[in-house]
Amino acid sequence: MLSFNYRARDRRCAPYTYLPNLRKGVLFMKKTLIALLAAGAMMLAACPAVMADEASEPQDLMFVSIVTGGVAWGSAQKGFEDALAELGWTGQYTSPTSPNDTAGVINLLDTAVTNKADGIITVILDSEQAADVLSKAREAGIPTVTCNTYTTPELQDCWIGTDPVNMGVTQAQTVLSYLEDEKYSSFDHVTACYIQTTLETETQNLQYKAFCDTIKEKYPDATLIQEECNSDAAVASDKLAALLKAYPDLNVVVSQDGYGCPGIANYVESEGLADKLIVIGIDDSEEILNYVSSGALDCTIAQDFYTMGYQSVYFIKDIKEGNPPAFDNDSGTIVIGPDGVEEHLAILEERGLL
Q1: What is the C-alpha separation between 320 and 64, in angstroms, rounded?
Q2: What is the pTM of this model?
Q3: Which parts of the chain register pLDDT below 50?
Q4: Where are the beta strands (DSSP E) in the chain?
Q5: Which end of the chain is more exposed for a tag (fewer CB within 10 A), N or C?
Q6: C-beta neighbour count of 185 within 10 angstroms
Q7: What is the tens place of the pLDDT at every residue in 207-238?
C-alpha cells in the first residue's frame, strides 16, 4: 500500500500522547480509557478533514513538461488548464528551452519544490537523473503525478498515460493486419524502422520491445531498427531517407513521436512511397489526420494527451482529499484510419483543440 505525505499548511493532526496512570481507582481508569478512545477517534476523523479542507482551498500547481505546444503536449496543457478552471485553481505549464532536456526539467522541478507548489505534474524521461528532485518533492509532501512516463511508487504518487506494452503490441498488431491487406499482399518479409523521441525515453523503449516481440512471433526473421528524432520533423524525415538507403528492403515505418511524424509523412508523400511502405503514425493533430486522409499515413494511433493533463489535476485533488488513485492509469489509444478521421476531428473541435 502506498503512503502519502500531505502538506496541511499550519493545520496538522496532533500526535498521540499517553497519559500517566494516576492510580485513582477503577472508575477513573474506565473514564480515562473512554476518553482516550474518543480522542483517538476524533483525531482520526480530523486528519481526512484537514486534507479535504486543504483541497477545497484554491491550489497552485506546476506542470513541468518536456516541450511546449504541438500535437501532444499542447493537448496536455489544454486539459491541464481546463481542469484548473473547473476547480478554480491556478497553475503554470512550463518546459525547458530545448525539447526533451532532462537537466532542464530537473531544474524546473527543483524550482517548483523550492517554491512549495501545491502539486506537481511532470514528464520524466530518465528516472535515475530525476530521483533526487522527486525525493525532495516527496519529503516536502507535494503530490506528484507524471504524464506518459513513470518512475516508482517511492518517488511519485501515480502516473497516467499510454500503457507502453499495450501501445507496442497495438502498433505491431496494426502492422500485421496491414500485411494481410490486399494492398500489401506482395510483402513477404518485415524490415521495419521504429522512430521514437529519444533512445533514452524509457517508456518508448518498453513500447519498442513489445513491438519487436509481437512482430517476431509471426516474422521471426524480421529486421527491426530503432531510431530517434528528438521531436523534430526535419530530423525524422532525414532519418527515414537515410534508413531507406541503408535498408533497400525497408517496408514498414512506425512513428512514435508526434512532432516527428509529419516529417515522416511529408517525406513519404513527396517521394511517392505511399504504396511501397506501411506507415503507422502517432497522435492526432489536424496535420497528421490530413496525412491519414491523403494516404501518406496508413493510420495514426492517437494517445489521449488531453485526458493526461486534465485527469492529472483531479488526481492531485483526490490525493489531497485522502482518496489516492491507483499508481498505474492507462489513458488508452485509438487507431484512426481514413474512415475515422472526420469523427476524430469532431472530438478535437469539441475539446477546443482545433
Answers
A1: 20
A2: 0.77
A3: 1-50
A4: 60-64, 90-94, 119-122, 144-147, 158-161, 191-196, 223-228, 252-256, 278-282, 299-303, 328-330, 333-336
A5: N
A6: 9
A7: 999 999 999 999 999 999 999 999 999 999 99
